[in-house]
Amino acid sequence: MKWPLVQLKDLCSFMTGGTPSTKDTTNYIDGDIPWIVSGDIHRGEIFDASKRITRRGMERSPAKLLPENSILIALNGQGRTRATVAWLRMSGATCNQSIVAIIPSSPSTLDYQYLYTTLRSMYQQLRNLTGDKNRAGLNMGLIGKVQIPLPPLDEQKRIAGILDAADILRAKRREALAKLDDLLQSTFLDMFGDPVTNPKGWETKKVEEVSRLVRGSSPRPKGDPKFYGGTVPRLMVGDISRDGFWVTPKIDSLTEMGASKSRPVPRGTVVMAVSGDVGVVATVQVPCCVHDGFVAFLELDENTFDSRFFMFQFHFLKMTHEKRKAGAIFQNLTTKYIKEIKLPLPPLALQQRFAEIVSSVEEQKAKMRKHLEQLDDLFASLQQRAFRGDL
């Protein structure tokens, strides 16, 4: 049976939030109201927020308390954030203006879990509402016109239950991948200690003494077909947050002319985000260009640092990387600041031993990612069958 399609505006109400003035620290200091921002949306089900504002800050801004079980969509954001969907599983939270909350008008007509599952399955369709341009944002008007299949309530719950069971398998695989990352982190700390405090007393060197640091770049004007949409891969910040330490560009590409006006880097280059997900590091697996939200560490002194060890140092430093302003807003990093960072310098043989462990763990992670891709394909197939009425 093919279910009828109904626009969201006919089934739901919508809310968005706001950002209290960052000039007034009383809007943030000792705040106890969870304040959801775009970065939180990737959690899927949200039981807490990474930031807080005060009640005074909320009352003096457009931010409002959201109903528990609201379905949240990111209107914009770095990389793959735009159109990502989450389920608010807590009360007493608010959000900024980059997120819209969708609230079913009648729970007897539209099930929260079904709405969450359906909109998650429509990720690319939601992005395409703005032409899938990197900088284009969604809005409530566009979202309100989105059509979803509307089976009877009992059928909605049955579909949501089946898809939830399939999603649990994917979550377990992701959890296993996270545990391998935890293993690498604990191994690093056992072998070298925390690079911030350097408890083993290793010799240190400044970044600028061991590598040439360059900033990524983006052709202007952005979106110009002379520069964008070609065959030359370009690494975006969203690629890192999705793939972890070892990345291949997947989101964006440039023409040959665009590449000539960008920052090309060779395979094996360590890069770090200096805006958006500040301080996130990765090693690129193919020659590519890098977005201006990165710095790239070129010509690394191989007699001093193994590149995999070098990357992990930055992962652990967290770098005072996150410079907070008014307790809530991240500042971008500068190449001048990064050049002055002092890195512990253990013996090269010890670094290489750690690098071998990294390679072994990454082989296991590659196999697990392949299995996760298969589970993702199965989940997508189940979704399509469910919404056609064939499940």
Based on Cα principal axes, name the global outline: globular
CATH architecture of the largest domain: Alpha-Beta Complex
* Estimated share of beta-strand residues: 15-25%
Distance between the termini: 10 Å
The main sheet comes to:
5 strands, mixed
Would you tell me which CATH topology of the largest domain applies? Adenine-n6-DNA-methyltransferase TaqI, Chain A, domain 2
Can you identify the CATH class of the largest domain? Answer: Alpha Beta
**Amount of helix:** 25-40%
Strand order, largest beta sheet: 2-9-6-7-4
What does this structure look like?
The chain has three domains: 5-150, Adenine-n6-DNA-methyltransferase TaqI, Chain A, domain 2 (Alpha-Beta Complex); 153-180 and 347-391; 203-345, Alpha-Beta Complex (Adenine-n6-DNA-methyltransferase TaqI, Chain A, domain 2), CATH 3.90.220. The chain has eleven helices and 23 strands. Helices cover 35% and strands 21% of the residues. It is of the alpha+beta class and 391 residues long.
Index terms:
391 residues; 35% helix; five-stranded mixed β-sheet; Adenine-n6-DNA-methyltransferase TaqI, Chain A, domain 2
